[in-house]
Design a protein that fits this description.
By secondary structure, the protein is mostly helical. 36% of the residues lie in helices and 7% in strands. It is built from 5 helices and 2 strands; from the N terminus they run ααβαβαα. It has a two-stranded parallel ribbon. 13% of the residues are buried. The mean pLDDT is 89.
């Protein structure tokens, strides 16, 4: 076999996107009655996602700054399994023809930091004050995870 067959083609760029405005961003009390992974986007969040898709497309079409993108460019998406991120991807995806999208992978390691189950507002205020005293990176939320846990999760293979 020729050596070229073993060379992996790396992406020209990696673009990271946070989800659009969610119901939880608008109203903290959502976390007391809705599981974190089921929190949806607001209508504004969906508009943000669609605009984000158009911006990403423009970035890709502009190429690497030295030249225009190749006419056969393609995209591959990785997405968290959370409802708000899947909805964000749906909005972003509207900017791309189906043949431009070579794949979508739902990756559970990309989810947000777990702050615990059905957070009680008053209890979370106290917990966040405690975290501020101990340090944001290493403090582990009860029934949740620390930022260090998140780092370990996303950097694992």
């Amino acid at each position: 076999m020729a050596e070229e067959e073993f060379v992996r083609k790396l992406p020209l760029r990696i673009i990271l996107v946070r989800h659009g405005e969610s119901e939880g961003n608008r109203d903290d009390s959502m976390y007391t009655r809705t599981p974190d992974h089921q929190i949806a986007l607001t209508p504004e969040g969906m508009k943000q996602a669609e605009e984000c898709g158009r911006k990403i497309r423009r970035i890709i079409e502009q190429g690497n700054g030295e030249s225009v993108a190749a006419p056969d460019w393609r995209v591959y998406f990785y997405v968290s399994p959370y409802k708000r991120t899947l909805c964000t991807l749906k909005g972003i995806g509207r900017a791309f023809e189906r043949e431009r999208i070579i794949g979508v992978r739902e990756e559970v390691r990309l989810r947000e930091q777990d702050f615990g189950n059905f957070q009680e507002e008053e209890r979370m205020k106290i917990i966040k004050q405690t975290r501020a005293r101990f340090g944001r990176f290493f403090y582990r939320f009860p029934e949740g995870e620390s930022a260090a846990d998140v780092f370990d999760r996303v950097s694992s293979r």
